[in-house]
Amino acid sequence: MPKLDTHHLHQSPVSAPCRAVQLHLFQLRTQTKEIPSVVVHDLDLAKGEHREPAYLEVNPRGCVPCLTTPWGSVAESRAIMLYLAELAGIVAQPAARASFGTPDGSSQAPINTGLPLKLWTRAKVAEWLDWDQGVWYAAISEAVYPVAFGGASEPDAKALEKVTAAGQTLVAALGDKPFITGDDWTVADLSIAMSATLLQLIHFRFDGELAPLSAYMGRMTELPGWWEVNKAFDTWRAADFPPPADEGDGDDAA
Predict the structure, then answer these.
(1) Total number of domains in the chain
(2) Among residues of the chain, what percentage have pLDDT more than 70?
């Protein structure tokens, strides 16, 4: 088997998907020393470094993040987190992995990899990762990107309606649970929460019927490494997207 310490993460520190991967790594490192070291390579997307020939050799699609492993490259943040969760499970909890397929989840994992042992819960994590990419992140991008990168003065009203509708779906799914599948965070929560941070760029607030999402995001910010991972994003946001003078420093979406 190739050495497990030859992993490299190519990313942008302000990208929401990249920050989800970084936060996942932070959670794993706080629980075990068994996972391989990951060398981080920051790319400046504004300068087009993700389109330069050197990076296109790593990921021909030119997107971030991308993780290079001893076996090849893995692109897309959600796939990377699933890989890291499986890898952590293999190297840090081999005994528990022997019964990971039990439908009732009778075995207890020594660490939380972000991907539970119970088959049903694993399926729900995959479901919510798909929802995040295809619905939540897509709706947020439609509302935020024209303002953040396209010169629009304000978000499109119909795009905001999509964000609200998706938020209502999330509120209903959470119910009384602290996290999307139950009592513990999963990689789905990391991805969903980092997508939500983009709403800060348009000062979208989780209030009214979306108020439970404010509490949800509050729980996510308590995870180890949240503020460290988001430092570059928060600095960029504060400099380029300050709140309107009449809003002060009120609570935005995240």
Answers:
(1) 2
(2) 87
